[in-house]
Amino acid sequence: MKFIFLTLLVIIGIRDSRSEQYEVVGPADPVFAVVGEDVILPCSVKPNISVVDMRVEWFRSDLKDSVVHLYEDNEDRNTNQSQSYRGRTKLIHQELQRGNASLKLASVQVSDEGIYKCLIQSKSWSVDATVMVRVEAVAGSPPVITVDGFDDSGGLRLQCESEGWYPEPVLEWLNSEGVSLSSETTDTHRNTDGFSVKHTITIHHSDKIHCRVKLRHHMLDTQIITSSNMFNFWRTSVILISVAVVLSVNAGILITVFVKKNRGKFLFSCYFI
Ligand SMILES: *[C@@H]1O[C@H](CO)[C@@H](O)[C@H](O)[C@H]1NC(C)=O
Ligand SMILES: *[C@@H]1O[C@H](CO)[C@@H](O)[C@H](O)[C@H]1NC(C)=O
Ligand SMILES: *[C@@H]1O[C@H](CO)[C@@H](O)[C@H](O)[C@H]1NC(C)=O
């Protein structure tokens, strides 16, 4: 008798939690967001029962301790919300009645890209859905080419820099025929405004050189024309410098000889020069 009673209780228990069971559904594909604009991260329960009395938590599963939005005991509780989401999240309470726990995220930032979880908990059931957010490409500043002088072999050093891209762009140097030239040094930095890139190259003869920064459908291009005069100027300078070095070495030798020959008279001679 006792056994049957217990079994009945267990069956009723299962029935109870079964009646509370629901699925949480997120979007199958990543949600694309544009920097500065608002985006909705879809999440709903199936069947569409009300979640007004449930706990709805949005968090980043790719970051530690990152509460995006918390709704509990019939209200928003955002004291522990991650700093970067402050004042930018909203759950529509009328929508919660219809089983819709979609989150509205205002003025999207580059750092919003990531993996989100929408966790919906009732007293006896807890299940979540994943929402991938991808921030759309942002074009940065037009590339700036700086002429960084000649190296020892007469090559002209060029540096190209561009900032504010997201995600990381591709920078390439091209000559006037559109042939890609390989960069000597490459440098990429990431900060809150996105990625900045800096590449250098050394060229040995006059040409029209392009520095092109590309990301998906964005492309920015800057060109520099190096005239043969620049390279001639370098050669002339090198020749002049060599001549000057030879002359001063000669002068040094002459002075040494002069001083050696005229020890004691040197100061005297100088006065008359
Ligand atoms: C915030 O975090 C603290 C410490 O983890 C916790 O005690 C408190 O209940 C949290 N507040 C909310 C609203 O969840
Ligand atoms: C749930 O969905 C059905 C069919 O899509 C709709 O008729 C019903 O009104 C919805 N219930 C709520 C509470 O929105
Ligand atoms: C869910 O709510 C959001 C607003 O938070 C709304 O944009 C969206 O259309 C709703 N989804 C459905 C299926 O009603």
From TrEMBL:
<dbReference type="GO" id="GO:0009897">
    <property type="term" value="C:external side of plasma membrane"/>
</dbReference>
<dbReference type="InterPro" id="IPR013106">
    <property type="entry name" value="Ig_V-set"/>
</dbReference>
<dbReference type="GO" id="GO:0050863">
    <property type="term" value="P:regulation of T cell activation"/>
</dbReference>
<dbReference type="Pfam" id="PF07686">
    <property type="entry name" value="V-set"/>
</dbReference>
<dbReference type="InterPro" id="IPR007110">
    <property type="entry name" value="Ig-like_dom"/>
</dbReference>
<feature type="domain" description="Ig-like">
    <location>
        <begin position="142"/>
        <end position="226"/>
    </location>
</feature>
<keyword id="KW-0812">Transmembrane</keyword>
<dbReference type="InterPro" id="IPR003599">
    <property type="entry name" value="Ig_sub"/>
</dbReference>
<dbReference type="InterPro" id="IPR053896">
    <property type="entry name" value="BTN3A2-like_Ig-C"/>
</dbReference>
<keyword id="KW-1015">Disulfide bond</keyword>
<keyword id="KW-1133">Transmembrane helix</keyword>
<dbReference type="GO" id="GO:0050852">
    <property type="term" value="P:T cell receptor signaling pathway"/>
</dbReference>
<dbReference type="InterPro" id="IPR050504">
    <property type="entry name" value="IgSF_BTN/MOG"/>
</dbReference>
<dbReference type="InterPro" id="IPR013783">
    <property type="entry name" value="Ig-like_fold"/>
</dbReference>
<dbReference type="GO" id="GO:0001817">
    <property type="term" value="P:regulation of cytokine production"/>
</dbReference>
<keyword id="KW-0325">Glycoprotein</keyword>
<keyword id="KW-0732">Signal</keyword>
<feature type="transmembrane region" description="Helical">
    <location>
        <begin position="233"/>
        <end position="259"/>
    </location>
</feature>
<dbReference type="Pfam" id="PF22705">
    <property type="entry name" value="C2-set_3"/>
</dbReference>
<feature type="signal peptide">
    <location>
        <begin position="1"/>
        <end position="19"/>
    </location>
</feature>
<feature type="domain" description="Ig-like">
    <location>
        <begin position="36"/>
        <end position="128"/>
    </location>
</feature>
<protein>
    <recommendedName>
        <fullName>Ig-like domain-containing protein</fullName>
    </recommendedName>
</protein>
<dbReference type="InterPro" id="IPR036179">
    <property type="entry name" value="Ig-like_dom_sf"/>
</dbReference>
<keyword id="KW-0393">Immunoglobulin domain</keyword>
<dbReference type="GO" id="GO:0005102">
    <property type="term" value="F:signaling receptor binding"/>
</dbReference>
<keyword id="KW-0472">Membrane</keyword>
<dbReference type="GO" id="GO:1903037">
    <property type="term" value="P:regulation of leukocyte cell-cell adhesion"/>
</dbReference>
